[in-house]
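Page header: ASSEMBLY MODEL / two components / 828 residues total.
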Amino acid sequence: MEAIIVGFSEIFSDPMCLVLLAGGIFLGIVFGCIPGLTATLGVTLMIPFTYSMTPVQGLTLLIAIYVGGISGGLITATLINIPGTPSSIFTCYDGYPMAHNGKPGQALSIGVFASLIGGTVSAMALFFIAPPLSKISLIFGNWEYFSVALLGLAVVITMASDDLVKGLIGALLGIVCGSIGIDAVSGAQRLTFGSWQLMSGLQSTALMMGLFAICEILVQSHTLGKEKKDIHLGKMSFLPPIREMKGCSVPILLGCLYGTGIGILPGIGQNAATLITYNQAKKLSKHPERFGHGSPEGICASETSNNAVNGGALIPLVTLGIPGDLTTAALIGGLMIHGLQPGPLLFKTNIDVVGAIMVAYFLSNIVMYVMELGLIRIFVKAVNIKFSYLFPVILMFCLLGTFALNNRTFDLWVLIISGVAAYILTQFKVDMAPVILGYILGPLVEKYFRMAMTAENGNFGAVLQRPIALVCLGVAVLFLLAPIFSASFRKGRNRLNMA
Amino acid sequence: MNVKGILKGSLCVMMAGAMLCGCQSSGSSEADYPSKSINVIVPFAPGGGSDVLTRSMMEYLELPNDQNFVVINVDGAAGYTGCQQAFNSANDGYTLLAHNPMDVVSYTLGGTTDVELYKELELICGIADDFNFLVTNKQSGWTSLEDVIEYVKAHPGEVKVGNTGSMNCNMADCLRVLDAMGIKDDVTVVPYDSGSDNKVAAMGNHVQLSVNTGADIQASVESGDLVPLLVISDRRSKSLPDVPCTKEVGYDVVTTKPRGMYAPKGTSPEKIQVISDAIAQVCSNEEFQQKVLSLGLEVNFVPGSELQTKIDGWVKDIAPMFDEMKQEA
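Prediction written out in full:
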């Protein structure tokens, strides 16, 4: 509690902080909404500049970019079906169809509103229950991570339910892509074909932007020559259209819960959070058939969870000095360069910095909401530029952003080849969502399973002593078996009816 | 129409001229090295320990002609990707590599590459020392090596030991220390991806012992969550001076983890000297030394040739352990 008060006074006493907060959010939204320039890139590019600021100023700026960037991704996802940042991949599935059906204003304001809710709820968790919540990241060992990742994989069966075979083909391709590189447990090289460039595996941003941005540009280029309908924003108000949002409370709740929870766990990551929430929301929805065709519930699930992850990831950072995801790992560098040791003692030794992190995060969400609603009009105008001009620019940013993230030309090839491969696959009606799923969750399942087995000398029975893992595994089995049982149940009843 | 053509033509000539001028001015001689900023590949993500060390150094660095380093982060494969990229770079003195020599050794001994990178890159100098510590968590209640050995001997197979990575020098040192303690066959070693994961596992009591670097454990030691038992070195560390070192307890494992600066093979000795001198000067700055200490490292400038000799010696000590690890894998 004391930290929050100190944090507010720290930030409001320094006008520079407020300027950096607003500037950071703006920069974040711009980075977030331009495909190829991701939130992570925004943070990593700005880190060197923060080294010359005070710790509070530097961290405020980085957190603002982080929040703006993750949320900004929904704009291009909704308007042109290209995710601005990998965590908004699932927003494409519902945001774009909704915008396409003449409701771009509503789709965007639902997305931005969901971002606000997700961010604010996780900020509250950060404010009031960070210390007890951070214990979760210590309780989770290899077995728990393994079972949670497996649960994620099982839930996603729903994703492939339209066409099971093609869904599984996609998921397997994803798993293969994810297994390239040096194996972390044994040090063996897998699918590298002797190339040192492949040792580190396929860079995840390059692959995901390839699968979704490059592929979508190729798909949409079919209609380049045709007359394009301008997008008209329609009415926009400060609050989202409540009437449209019937049934959205469940996905929002799920998003807050899963987002914050997965954020706290250092070993899972932002993209997995949206993936799991989206599919879980689909499963629990009264109208699962609308998912993928412009369901406001889908937008809510995806956008609440990706923003809730931010706050969740900050919890172990401020309490234990453990980064919750890649971007918070970069924040730790921002602390260390000022001689601050991120760790359990930070609360005692530098309460001003801890408080500032929390408050900056909270304020960022609110400023993000207001600013993004204001900016949407401008973005809609930008999107109405002819695609034959717009696409080359996006393509250039994709290449630029991918290179800037890790300074390797090889990643550009990953981007291009995965884009072309994805285009070919989509022509055979293979959906890219299962590919991403396999790519993200497959390696997690494998890594944690093997580490757990190494730790127990190959004794799988050890899992019996881990209640959390057991529950997750049980639920996973239920999800896997449910379709079989419900199908045979239905068949049985049909037979009864016939008789 | 004609006027336009002339204009176009003259514009082309002017631009070509400008480009030629550019070529001339960037053509540099040995004497005024560096005449532009020097790219330093940091083979890890921004914000990591190596990144922060290099960037802190840049604050104090004074190179001729007012030039400085520019950090190029190339993350991947535990630092191997950036290392290989530096190895493939031009040896004109404008690409350097900030890396840990013992990691570079690991790539070759661990079988990631056949090239003996630790010999094929020019080691400019060592900048700072990091140490591997053997730590336990507060849950175990152990406070000394004796406690550990006694418990493990009484409960063989029960205790788990966390390590950072597998098939690398950390793992080799971890196994050698456990061997020296006489408990190698009574514990299970679990390789974690990063120092941070390794630390979390120890704090959550998923492993009871852990071999991890000073930079990673420092904050948790101060808060009492982790208890350091031993530092792998021939001397005690400045940041945790109460912890005994392997040499004083009689274990023959003294590999520290220096942080070094490399150049691609064939970079001229004069250029290497320029960089080495500039870094030596930074290392003598007390403010820099304090800053590095707060990162959990200690400044220890060692000229390239001296450090290379030391490392070649360590490679001989450590290589048999890699053969053993490969057999088990």
